Structures are given as C-alpha cells and as structure tokens.
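SEVERITY: medium
COMPONENT: batch folding queue
REPORTER: lab tech (J.R.)

DESCRIPTION
The queue accepted two submissions in a row. Attaching both inputs and their returned structure tokens so the on-call engineer can compare them side by side.

ATTACHMENT 1
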Amino acid sequence: MASSSLPSTAPAPSAPPPGGATAFDTLSSLLHSRYSCRAYQPEPLQRATIEQILATAQRTASWCNAQPWQVHVASGATLARLREAFTQALPAAPPTPDLPWPREYRGVYQERRRECGWGLYEALGIAKGDREASARQAAQNFTMFGAPHVAIVTSDEALGTYGAVDCGAYVAHFMLAAHSLGVGSIAQAALASYPAVLREVLGIGEDRTIVCGISFGMADLAHPANHFRTTRADVADSVVWRD
C-alpha cells in the first residue's frame, strides 16, 4: 500500500513519567485526588501558571474541532467589582440562567445530590434543617469562596447544546490541569444564574451563552470545607454491556 502524501501531524510518543509510573497512572491519580475547593488563600497565582492551565485545557476535544469556549478570567480589581455586583443583584433579581436548570433531580440523582449537600454541611458543622446557615454557605458561591481568580466559560450562542457539551469537557480539563499544578478549583453553575451581572462587569456579549464559572487559586487546606469528599458510583451502576 502506498504511503499517504500528507505529512503526519501526530506528536511523537512522550517518554514515560519518572519512577515507572505510566500516563494512565498519572491521569488516574489526578482524577482520584481532585476535589471541589471551597476555600482559598487570597494570594493570586503567577500569570504563567494560569497560562499553563489555559494552554493545556485548550487541547480539549470538541465537535468538528469548533473549540467554542471563550473564557473571561477575572482577578484583582475586576474580581472585586464582580463580587460587589453580585452582592447588589442577588436580593433584587431572580436567577435567569442562559442554560435552563435541570427540570428535577429524581431517584438516584436526587440521592447523590442530597448526600453531597449533607456531607458538606456536616464538614462545616451545619445541622440538617438549619436553613439560615445553609443559605449563608450557598451565598459563598458569589464570593467565589474567596478565590483570587475566576474563569467565566461561555459558548457561541448558535451552537446550542453541542457548544455547552464541548464547554463541559473544557471545564473538566481546566480543573485537571489546575490540580496537576497544585491549584485548587471548583466549577460553579451558580455564577451563571445571573448572566446580566457577568455581562455588565466583564463585557460579555449577547452572542455568548454563559455556561458556568470556575473559581481557582491555592487551596486553604486548613478550612473544613476542603476536608469533605464526594463519593462515586460503581462502574456497574453507569455502564450497560451489550456483547
């Protein structure tokens, strides 16, 4: 068979990680150890570190290689303005996300959601039924949990569900890249609940669908919120074999 006249663009295989670990071992370790960080040290990251995370996440696969994500990274004075804008907007405006919220959580999905919430509240010493304390914790979403940076992820409005799916993959890879560098992060649908605030402060156009935010920075490891871990279902609960 004649060889193709097109040049190969595939990268050369990389050398295995030191210590005998394979690429699979590294990926598995990152996936098993990553968690949603809900308390941060206030010091900002070096710009070079953020650029490393962004460059790695940019390798995310997407439908037809559209790469629809556009990311607004807010830090410093801009992040302070964003926090203040949320403080002003939340009491007066109902949430109006660009993407509709789930119609309902039912069955096992509701069970997992409750387990996650109760586990977090237990770590924070919030008793079941204490609505005032749970509301205060929920409001921490809009302070970005004290993170020094937030990335607001948007998609092209015309791409609809497909663009949102691509952005979901981007978010996952962003957080894995951050974790690989020792940086904590959390994906936040809550921030996308108030798109008007984000558009006003960050200059995001109406042609962009706001998908979610990712707060990130160095974790405050002493904070009890960062001692909580979620569980995962068995593979058998998620896979149907049809041999």
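ATTACHMENT 2
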Amino acid sequence: MTRPIHVLGIGGTFMGGLAQLAAASGVRVSGADEGLYPPMDGQLRQAGIPFHEGYRPEDLPEDALVVVGNVMRRGLPVVEAMLDRGSAYVSGPQWLAEHILRDRWVLAVAGTHGKTTTASMLAFLLDAAGLDPGFLIGGVPRDFEVSARLGGSPFFVIEADEYDCAFFDKRAKFVHYRPRTLVLNNLEYDHADIYPDMASIERQFHHLVRTVPGQGQILVNADCPALQRVLAQGCWTPVRHYAVTAPAELTAKALNAEASRFDVRSNGHSVGMVAWALTGEHNMANALAALGAARHAGVPLEQSIPTLAAFGGVRRRQELRGEVNGVRVIDDFAHHPTAIQATLSGLRAAMPEASRLLVLLELRSNTMRMGVHAETLGGSLDTADRVFLFRPDALGWSPDALSRTLGPRLHMASGIDELAAATADNARPGDWVVIMSNGGFGGIHHALLARLRERWHEVP
C-alpha cells in the first residue's frame, strides 16, 4: 500500500493537482499552504483532502512521506523540522513520475507560452475520441472543471513546466516525466530567478528531448528559432513540425481578422476548418500542436479538427468574469510581454471598432519583479487604450520606461482598491477591461465588478 503523503505547497496548481491524483488513486493525502485562493481551495475540499492554512512543524504527520513544493525554502521552520526529524521527503515531480506516470503514455506540453491552453485542448481531443485520458494541467479546463484526473486509459496529458522541482532538486520539473509524445510550443527567456540566460533554459529543454524514446514523437513549432537550437544539441526521436508562418508539415491559415476561423493544412493540403470562440494566431499554433499530438495518440486530424469547435477553453484565459452596463470584465493569465501582446492583439481584433481596451496588470512573476522585461513591456501594451498598473512595494525596478512609452494612458497605484476605483471611474459602456496576472491579484476581479455596479446602481 502506498505511503500517505503530506504536500507542502498544496495550493499551487501543480501540487494541488498532484494531491487530487494521489487521493483518486487511494493514497491518504493532507497538506499545507499559505493564502489559498480559488479555484484550488475548492477543488481540494471537493476531493475531500484536508489542508492547513500556514506552515507549522506540528502539522507534519509522523507517518507521511512529505512531498515538497518548490515554494519551500531552507530556513522555514517546517522545512527545518522535516530535516531534523529525518522525515522521508521527495519533490512533487519525482513522486508524480514514480506513482502516477509510470507505465502511462505521457503526452507532455512544454514551452514558455500556451502550455495550459494546449494541454487542455489535447486532453479534450483525446476525451472526445473516447480515450479517457488522465491529465495534470496548470489551470482549469472548462470542459472538465478540474485541473487533474487519473483517467481510465494509458494516456496522460501533462503541462510540462521548466521551473525547478524543490530546494534539493534544481532540475526542471519536466525531466521527470519521460513523455512518449512531446510538444515544444515555443521558447523565450523567462524564470530569471532560476536561469541566468537563454542558453541555460535551452539546455534544460535539451535534457527533456533526451528523455523521449526513439519510438516516440516530438512536435516542434517551426516558427521558433530557439527550439531549432535545442534540437541541434542532439535529438534521437522523430520530429514533426507545425507552424503558422514558417514552412512546416502542419500549418494553418486564418480566415478572418481575429483568427477565430482558420484552415488546417497537412503537407499543403486542406484537411478541415476550425471555427471556435478563441482568437489570435497564438491559439492557432496551440491548436496545431494539440491536433498533432492527438494524431500521434491515434486520433486522425479529420476527426479532431471539427471537434475543436466545441472546446470550452480554460478558466483565466480570456475568461469573461462579468458585464456591467456594457463594460465587459475579462480575466487572463498572461504575464510575459509576448503573451500579453498576443492576448491583447487577439482581443482587439475581436472587439467592436468603437470599443476601448483597458488593461489592469499585476507585475507578479519573479521575472517581472526583477525588471528583466522592463524595456519590452511597454511595447506589449501598446494595443491598450488605458493601462492600470499595480505597483508593488517590492518592485525591483522603476517603471519610468513604461511611462515614457505609454504616456498619459498609464495609471499606476500601489493599492488594489485604488486601482479598481480608478478603472471603474474611467470605464464607459462598450469598454473591454482585461485583468492580467498569474496570481489572485488581491481579488481585484470582484472589487472592480462591485465598483462598476456601484457606479451604475446595478444589483448583482
């Protein structure tokens, strides 16, 4: 019988998903975290998994294997107690690989952008084909309403993250997963708190490529030069390319301005048309990746392409959170300049011409707070009519460059209520307001909607 586990950092999408998979497989699970927020706290309760708010040494079970999240650091009392007691411990990716992924056909989706959407799409396509896949995704697919499930077949879809595993295992998470099908979506510099330069990230992706068997398959975005450099370091697995602009075996051509309708082509020949609610060329690329990976698992393109019309998307990816007096409030996870620009371009193309695009942005990721993207962030926001920026006290750089780029369109505030109030006061009917953060953003979604209702005297 598998040993009980206690998950430190259980509120994260990866660790919370791991906890759900463990519980579903019959393992007794408990955990702890700080500041849990939806949707993970609700998913854990629904799965019947007990968890503590805060990290206290006395909450460590005596008989459990401690699964340590990468938010844990030496010097934390709970970590020091775990080490002093001689408790058994392991990183989350290692536990997952040994207890869930072993003997599964793993389909991994890696890259800087689009992992969650592409993995969700791939799980949806396999599920629609009756393959009943398991999955672990860093978000909540609307078609499943959970971020993880065991599934009932050999197939398992996983969002393959390059962040490190734990304080004692500084390898990228994805080297543990041993995929048979690997998607390499794109690659840019990110996680500056972990990787000193682009070459070090490319080396980690090369380590991932080394784990894919010769009988597997790697699907690579031909529009991304960095991925070609990764493959040039060595590859022992068949590679198939897809692309939106570069020559490739699997391509797509947009049929309208917002790219919500596009033709899918294999070796230059049309094999079907996708018409869906998503927008932007980046989602066309995500679709090609998912279609190619599903094909490797045995689902023909001709079957998958029409299925994509029913794909429900992912929560926090261009998700409409509410509308007040014609002002649409949209939630999005984008937090890297490339993703921000792609999301805003897609929304702009889908909006009525007279509407304005307002952006609320939280500089939350370690890379953003360090100022790595300070010079490119302003350009990524150029599509917006107004930008409302949350400026945290711990910001390690001056946003003066943003002020120079955006001018009077930029409003900065260091308080959530102040930012919500400024946005609500500026909004007018017909505006689209997109909230961009890779965290909870202090509940600003609810605060903004409340302010808008108060302004126009609407009852929720």
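NOTES FROM REPORTER
The two ends are 50 Å apart (CA to CA).
No errors were logged for either attachment.
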